[in-house]
Amino acid sequence: MRLKNKVAVITGAAQGIGRATALKFAKEGAKIVVTDMMLDALNETIEEVMGLGAEVLAYAANVVNKDEMEKVVEDVISKWNKIDILVNNAGITADNQLLKMPEEDFDKVIAVNLKGVYNCSQVVAKVMAEQGSGVILNASSIVGIYGNFGQTNYAATKWGVIGMTKTWAKELGKKGIRVNAVAPGFILTPMVKKMPDKVLDMMRDKSPLKDLGLPEDVANAYAFLASDEARFITGAVLSVDGGVVL
Predict the structure, then answer these.
(1) Which uninterrupted H or E stretch holds 212?
(2) How far apart are CA 245 and CA 230, in angstroms?
(3) Residues annotated catalytic, as ranges
(4) At 222, which CATH number?
């Protein structure tokens, strides 16, 4: 097991990529800490993780609120004395074209997708720096690299996450902390599954593999980057997109 006895904090773990990552890490032997605001769905994640025999802590914590995340970290440290991995997965969308986007929609996406990553990383990085080791993994997107129609706010956050990833890799490497990002393409999350079939078919056709990704595909990338197999990888952005941007 690649992550045996590692303590992994995963935000936005109630469903989709976050849940898949929690389950993958549990299978790899990690102790799991999950956070989300969707409590019913989070309970399902907890049950599945426990069903794999893994230890798990769960919190209804909002990444926008740094005080809440500090309390989560304090509790995890009191329980397990360390945090080895942070996966900044929590994110939202509020799509609209530039000329139609309400300011509040821009602000709330920035708050969760960008400020939330900053909040969680700063709190956890302090612990990792004292330990002299750790891995921070950030959820970017191909939208953050190439842009996308109707996603000014989302694209801005995901590009910003790449900038933070590379900056933190430079700052934290000397403290034994690796920082990387994953940039998923079209992944069959609950949100994507709600799209019309013709849109999903169009996205499949754009991929050389003629397929859409699964949450497990992204979780597998996170598991590799979190493991010692990736010990010499930092500041990288790993695209998990089926070649859709080729």
Answers:
(1) none
(2) 25
(3) 154
(4) 3.40.50.720
Count CA within 13 A, CB hemisphere, residue 149: 0
Structure token pair of residue 56: 């798990």
Q: 67 in a domain, yes or no?
A: yes
227 by DSSP, 3-state: which?
coil
- Report the domain count for the chain: 1
Q: What is the pLDDT of residues 87-140, one digit of tens each?
A: 999 999 999 999 999 999 999 999 999 999 999 999 999 999 999 999 999 999
Q: What is the dihedral of CA 231, 145, 118, 120, to 10 degrees?
A: -60
Report residue 49 as tokens. 């993780």
In a domain, 59, yes or no: yes
Tokens found for residue 130: 């004292």
Residue 71 belongs to what domain range? 7-184+215-237
Phi and psi angles of residue 42, each rounded to the nearest 5 degrees, phi first: -65, -35
